[in-house]
């Protein structure tokens, strides 16, 4: 059973979010995360009630600096969620190891990109970092309380 003194949020750290809300048709991004500080990350896309004909696309993107130009992480995009496909109130998960980034070319920063298409929809997302290389990891500044 590992170390019982380690809190779960020190292993799986909430590092960024797209706050749940009625989101208009647009692209939303989490903050840039240095995946060099974690062994892996997991993005969870949360679709609530999707508007008429609405779609949600989500993918991980990567860059060499937090403010740099981002490109897609190969193979890290969900199958489009659609209102027509009865995807309201569903979730999608994207897993990514730090070595799946283009590390040979210096890519280490990652963001979740979520695009709501056609109609306003209830949606949000969380980005979790796993097994921090420099413990303890710190949760996102928006985390109000850890019990």
Structural commentary:
- The structure is a single chain.
- By secondary structure, this protein is mostly beta strands.
- It has one domain: Jelly Rolls (Sandwich), CATH 2.60.120.
- The protein is built from no helices and ten strands.
- It has strands spanning 12-23, 26-29, 33-34, 38-47, 55-63, 71-77, 81-82, 91-97, 109-117, 121-132.
- The strands form two sheets. Strands 2, 3, 5, 6, 7 and 9 form a six-stranded antiparallel sheet that branches. Strands 1-10-4-8 form a four-stranded antiparallel sheet, with no helix packed on it.
- A hairpin with a 7-residue loop joins strand 5 (55-63) and strand 6.
Question: Quick gist of this model?
Answer:
This protein is mostly beta strands and 147 residues long. Helix content is 0%, strand content 50%. The protein starts with 11 loop residues before the first strand and ends in a 15-residue tail after the last strand.
CATH level 1 class label? Mainly Beta
- Count of strand segments: 10
Computed CA radius of gyration, to the nearest angstrom? 16 Å
Strand content: over 45%
Alpha carbon gap, first and last residue: 21 Å
Strand-pairing-aware structural class = mainly beta
How many structural domains in the coordinates? 1
Q: Return the average pLDDT rounded to an integer.
A: 95
Annotated CATH architecture: Sandwich
What does the overall shape look like? globular
Provide a count of the helices.
Answer: 0
Helix-residue proportion: under 10%
CATH topology: Jelly Rolls
Characterize the main sheet: 6 strands, antiparallel
| Poorly predicted ranges | none
Elements, N to C (H/E): EEEEEEEEEE
């Amino acid at each position: 059973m590992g170390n019982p003194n380690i809190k779960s949020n020190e292993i799986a750290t909430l590092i960024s979010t797209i706050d749940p809300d009625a989101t208009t048709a647009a692209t939303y991004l989490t903050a840039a995360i240095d995946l060099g500080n974690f062994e892996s990350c997991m993005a969870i896309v949360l679709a609530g009630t999707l508007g008429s004909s609405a779609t949600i696309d989500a993918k991980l993107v990567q860059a060499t600096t937090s403010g740099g130009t981002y490109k897609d992480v190969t193979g890290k995009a969900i199958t489009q969620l659609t209102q027509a496909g009865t995807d309201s109130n569903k979730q999608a998960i994207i897993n990514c190891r730090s070595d799946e980034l283009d590390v040979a070319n210096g890519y280490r920063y990652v963001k979740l990109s979520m695009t709501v298409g056609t109609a306003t929809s209830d949606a949000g997302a969380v980005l979790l970092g796993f097994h921090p290389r420099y413990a303890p990891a710190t949760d996102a500044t928006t985390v109000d309380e850890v019990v």
